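#structure-requests
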Amino acid sequence: MSAKQSRPTPAEHEELVQLLRVPSERDLPGRRHQILKDHLLRESRRAGGEGAGLRALPRRRLVLAAVPLAAGAVAAVTVATGGLLDRPSRAVASPAAAAPDAVASGRAGGGTASTPATVLLDRIATVAASRPAPVVRDGQYVYVVSTVAYSFQSDTDPVMRLEAPHRREIWHSVDGGRPGLLRVKGQDVELVTHPEDLPPQSRSGGKNHRPENASPTLNSPTYRYLESLPTDPEALLERIYRETAGSGPGPDEQAFVTIGDLLREQLAPPEVSAALYRAAARIPGVTVVEDSVDAAGRHGVAVARTHAGERTEWIFDKNTLEFLGERGVMVEDTAWAKAGQITATTAVLNRGISDKAGESSQRAN
């Protein structure tokens, strides 16, 4: 696929500009940057030849109005006020009794108390671990299709407004060794690594030597990378805190955001998925929302965390405990949004393994 085919139209370019215009003093710690759109904008401004490829960059969290989740727009907040609503999850040990490095990370350590959030996440983890592991070969792709809608601002309108929901498809190379593909709003964008990002011995001018992800990390994983993660929740959470130290709005919120990113547009082995859920149960401030709605209008129970007036919700089917999507909801009035306002909404429609970028797959989970 040529770079010419992948470049955004003027309308898409303007949308990206709107998504990226955020006042510098804003602090929206819970937001995940939709890195592919950000990169599209920067690539459209880059001077380069027809052969310039689009670089697959880490999913950094930046101070932006665009909130990456996975589904279409929802007009109103539907949150039940039953007994489990928004009860905080706390670690058993107090910060004073915890190890110094655990206190510095913001986590009390020492295990988790039996709260609504920890009980729910343990149930979700048990179900996730029981699912059969997909058969995955190098050269294949993790395929995720979703409906998404994100908030945006402009210089003339500081109020966040939710865009219209639209379909989003992405193909990630299983081993990172081939170009991936993003298909959104009628455009195909090839996801590759630029030669300067490769080790010297791997650099070549040929297209076949431009993989999607030459150096996978927590913020930019491949399926093979996820296979290598610890399945012990405590060890996994320690790794997340360690590798994300100094980034984002704070260690606990950054850990929650990192786990959400790993769950949303990737496919993890069952035992790793279970470990991620149990690791999330150890993050202070995790709560339960008894009724939430994804972008497809599906109701479910949510695991949530609130930071800086915004609540980020991971939504699960109440019966099967399958991950449905995510939602961002303001819980406080601010200069750019009102309490109850939806800041982002997504719904995962299919997730599986594909033999070829651009082709759909059989559902994996």
